[in-house]
Amino acid sequence: MPIDKFVMKIADLFSKKKWSKEDFIEPIISYAKTRSDAEREMLFDLLQNFIIYNYEQYRSELLKILKLIPQKRFANISNIYIIAVVDFDNPGRTKSSSVLTYLFQDTKIKHLPLFNKIPISIISPNDLASINIWDSLIIVPDDFVGTGDTFCNFYNGLKSLNGGLSKEKIIFLFIIGMEHGINILKTNNFEFYYNDILKKGITDIQNLKKRNLYYQLMDSLESEHKIGSKMHYGYGQSEGLIKMIRTPNNTFPIFWHENNPLAPFPR
């Protein structure tokens, strides 16, 4: 795809998807200018299936998710505790889960009829050790689920802090998740609610005529940008096509990796 055609088509795509041209269109075009016609065609095809969530959408998305939880789930519950996901191996690392957690301070969310006036408290994982878990419910919100490993590991970390924490006492919430990550949560018998599913960006896209070529082009780009095997096609080979407040590392790394100086969606 010649660059002039790419620029025209990408402008139309931005209008169709109502993306912010001010934030993203120039970085995408700048990267496209350095690529071949075949690579630009692949970029455009992938961007057609790309999803962008901005901060302004998080509150409305959280409200949608909460309405999916059955009212009976709060029967015999005296306290609701909201806990942001943390990396127990790197506790100082900030994760996007904290954004969703903060939204539970919003008056409209806090006083939803769903909660039936049950007290809602935002706590840290370490606070869980001193909590009577038997009449409590733990809600763990996040914006995105990739491989599902983060939630699984976080549950194990919480359980090490309070041995009484069973899977029946915890609910995971997320805006959107990779299909394979959602299947992992199902296999582990977690209770969770979400708004949307994201499929793999090359493998699972129907009617993608140049699938094999796109794998070859992606391999070449990853080699050029010195993307390590751990992030091949995105963490867990997720083939993600998504940007949240922070681009998940499950997204194809050509879009965010620091080794690509023209990455349009850097982390």
Question: Could you walk me through the main structural features you see in this protein, from its secondary elements to its overall organization?
Answer:
The structure is a single chain. With 267 residues, this protein is α/β, with parallel strands linked by helices. It starts with a helix and ends in a 24-residue tail after the last strand. The strands form two sheets. The protein has a five-stranded parallel sheet with strand order 3-2-4-5-6. Strands 1-7 form a two-stranded parallel sheet. Helix 1 (3-17) packs antiparallel against helix 2 and helix 1 (3-17) runs parallel beside helix 3. It has two domains: 3-48 and 199-255, no CATH class; 57-198, Rossmann fold (3-Layer(aba) Sandwich), CATH 3.40.50. It has nine helices and seven strands, in the order αααβαβααββαβαβαβ. It is elongated, with a radius of gyration of 20 Å. Helix 8 links the parallel strand 5 and strand 6 (191-198).
Shape: elongated
Number of distinct beta strands: 7
H/E element sequence: HHHEHEHHEEHEHEHE
Residue stretches low in confidence (pLDDT < 50, at least 5 long) are none
How do the strands of the widest beta sheet line up side by side?
3-2-4-5-6
- Beta content: 5-15%
| The first-level CATH class name of the largest domain | Alpha Beta
Task: Estimate the helix proportion, in percent.
Answer: 25-40%
